[in-house]
């Protein structure tokens, strides 16, 4: 049975424990900094500091952030000669609280013939794409990549306004007008 | 005018060390990250907290800590006479004072490159608005899950008819006696805010200050109860053990 604590409650002594998430050290005492349940986590066997970690888990899930290597779902906002700008909407299965800007560069669209990529035949504004985060990038945007079979456009609207059906890894067809449009399509299993 | 009658009762029937009734509720503004309604007697205040979120004005950003912004405003219907425009001196001063109090309490070093917005709206003003605002802001910050050192609580006390009085209402405040507002971090036993109007001899000041601190501790207990109750309710609704 774990105890409920509020900010300022004493959790233990800093000589015996280490302050984890939701806790902080003042002088030699560990205090809670969040409202929630407090628990003691045993340290990893290979860590140098063998003190147990005191944590407080709050109820508000804080800001999910894209990490390098995670698969994200994003909407394309702008397509220019050598890159596409996207707004990251979900990280994995969870939606993010505030939008993050992302960029898919020409060389990261696919794995083969990367210098012959035509951005306008890979993405269009409004497409929903699944991409992988390459790195945190610069101050303006995350760097993303769609250079895998299962990454790329998952949903797109045709010129007629209907959601298109994927035909191959380069084409999608509109069910209403029958027109095919070029995209870098994700192989959704 | 008699503010404390010979039997020791004040104008609203309270004794000298009695606080007004407190009503505290969390989550009243669902769009905000954290929010609270705090009432001390007839003084009603709503606090809404947004953050930590991406900094909006890059020139103000702090590299190693979060930026705390606070805005205090009174609704036009909050007092009898229709309020003057928003940026009057009192509102600016109170915004600054409350911001400094909350900034000392929030662990800003954990959230660099971000900002935390605290909005305070007084719905009904009957004395002690700055204390009610600080208490409401603490509840709202705790609701938003923003890490804090302790719960910053505040209470006011005065001195009328040779008696220290706890938690002054508007009539007692306007009487011309001293009004001491104290803000403390109860578990760490530190003072974060100390303001006084008018003058008091030193020994009297110490008595009034001690009375206000006692009031603060009682409010802290109440705020703690409200937070624990709210967490239990959330767990129950989520169906967790």
Automatic annotation (TrEMBL), chain A:
Keyword Cytoplasm: yes
UniProt GO MF annotations: RNA binding
InterPro entries: Csl4 (IPR039771), EXOSC1_C (IPR019495), Exosome_cplx_N_dom (IPR025721), NA-bd_OB-fold (IPR012340), S1_domain (IPR003029)
Chief site of localization: nucleus
Pfam families membership: ECR1_N, EXOSC1
S1 motif domain span: 69-148
Domain of life of the native organism: Eukaryota
Keywords from the named record: Cytoplasm, Exosome
Subcellular location: Nucleus, Nucleolus
A GO BP annotation: RNA processing
Gene Ontology CC: one annotated term: nucleolus
Protein name: S1 motif domain-containing protein
Organism: Thlaspi arvense (Field penny-cress)
Lineage, broadest ranks: Eukaryota, Viridiplantae, Streptophyta, Embryophyta, Tracheophyta
From TrEMBL, chain B:
Record protein name field: Exosome complex component RRP41 homolog
Main location: cytoplasm
Subcellular localization, as worded in the UniProt entry: Cytoplasm; Nucleus, Nucleolus
Keywords: Cytoplasm, Exosome
Family matches, as InterPro entries: ExoRNase_PH_dom1, ExoRNase_PH_dom2, ExoRNase_PH_dom2_sf, PNPase/RNase_PH_dom_sf, Ribosomal_Su5_D2-typ_SF, RNase_PH
Family: Belongs to the RNase PH family.
One Pfam family it belongs to: RNase_PH_C
One Gene Ontology cellular component: nuclear exosome (RNase complex)
GO molecular function list: RNA binding
GO terms classed as biological process: nuclear mRNA surveillance; poly(A)-dependent snoRNA 3'-end processing; rRNA catabolic process; U4 snRNA 3'-end processing
Residues of the Exoribonuclease phosphorolytic domain: 18-147, 150-214
């Amino acid at each position: 049975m774990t105890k409920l604590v509020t900010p300022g409650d004493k959790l233990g002594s800093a000589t015996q424990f280490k302050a984890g998430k939701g806790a902080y050290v003042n002088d030699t005492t560990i205090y809670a900094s969040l409202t929630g349940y407090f628990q003691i986590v045993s340290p990893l066997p290979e860590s140098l500091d063998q003190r147990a970690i005191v944590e407080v888990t709050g109820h508000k899930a804080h800001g999910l952030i894209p990490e390098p290597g995670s698969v994200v779902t994003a909407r394309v906002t702008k397509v220019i000669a050598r890159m596409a700008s996207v707004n990251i909407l979900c990280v994995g299965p969870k939606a993010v609280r505030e939008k993050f800007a992302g960029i898919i560069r020409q060389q990261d669209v696919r794995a083969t013939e990367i210098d012959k990529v035509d951005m306008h035949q890979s993405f269009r504004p409004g497409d929903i794409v699944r991409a992988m985060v390459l790195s945190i990038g610069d101050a303006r945007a995350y760097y993303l990549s769609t250079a895998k079979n299962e990454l790329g456009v998952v949903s797109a609207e045709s010129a007629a306004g209907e959601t298109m059906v994927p035909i191959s890894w380069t084409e999608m067809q509109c069910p209403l007008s029958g027109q095919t449009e070029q995209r870098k399509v994700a192989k959704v299993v | 005018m008699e503010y404390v009658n010979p039997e020791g009762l004040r104008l609203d029937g309270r004794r000298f060390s009695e606080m007004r009734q407190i009503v505290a509720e969390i989550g009243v503004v669902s769009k905000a990250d954290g929010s609270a309604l705090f009432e001390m007697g007839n003084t009603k205040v709503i606090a809404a907290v947004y953050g930590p979120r991406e900094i909006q004005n890059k020139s103000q950003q702090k590299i190693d800590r979060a930026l705390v912004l606070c805005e205090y405003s009174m609704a036009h219907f909050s007092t009898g006479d229709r309020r003057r425009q928003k940026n009057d001196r009192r509102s600016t001063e109170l915004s600054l004072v409350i911001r400094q109090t909350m900034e000392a309490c929030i662990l800003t070093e954990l959230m660099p490159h971000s900002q935390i917005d605290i909005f305070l709206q007084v719905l009904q003003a009957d004395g002690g608005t700055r204390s009610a605002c600080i208490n409401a802001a603490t509840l709202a910050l705790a609701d938003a899950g923003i890490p804090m050192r302790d719960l910053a609580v505040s209470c006011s006390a005065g001195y009328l008819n040779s008696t220290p009085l706890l938690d002054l209402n508007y009539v007692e405040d306007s009487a011309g006696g001293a009004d001491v507002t104290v803000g403390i971090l109860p578990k760490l036993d530190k003072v974060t805010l100390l303001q006084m109007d008018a003058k008091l001899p030193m020994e009297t000041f110490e008595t009034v200050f001690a009375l206000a601190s006692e009031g603060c501790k009682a409010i802290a207990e109440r705020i703690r109860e409200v937070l624990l109750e709210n967490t239990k309710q959330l767990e129950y609704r989520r169906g967790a053990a």
